[in-house]
What we know:
The structure is a single chain. This protein is an all-beta fold. The chain has strands at residues 10-13, 24-26, 32-35, 45-48, 52-56, 67-71, 76-79, 87-92, 102-107. The chain has a single domain (10-107), classed as Beta Barrel (Virus Head Decoration Protein, Chain: A). A hairpin with a 4-residue loop joins β6 and β7. It is globular.
Amino acid sequence: MKNKVQSGHTITVSKGSAAVSGEAYDIGNGYAGVAVADYGSADAGEYETSGVKSFGKDGSAYTVGELVGYDADTSSVVKSGDGAKDFDLGRVTAPADAGATSIEVMINDRQGPGPSYN
């Protein structure tokens, strides 16, 4: 296809602040990206914007399909309605009980349930 620029799974962004590999960031207007490497504040960096990633989480229990947010201060997943949420991250792909320390999230998957086909 002659108009394809890239797959879009990873994009290059200059966000104006340092980034740590594997951490989630709001890379613009609430769009989540996970840093591929460490970047300085003046560097353009590569950020993955799709796929399932593992993150640290708060002490809440989570179910598959639940929309979750990210708290940049604690570098952890939080409930979408939590006041500590800095931006929406995506949807949970594997259940996590309150005692779990990590959670799997599909990045930028924010759509609700699809139509019913009966």
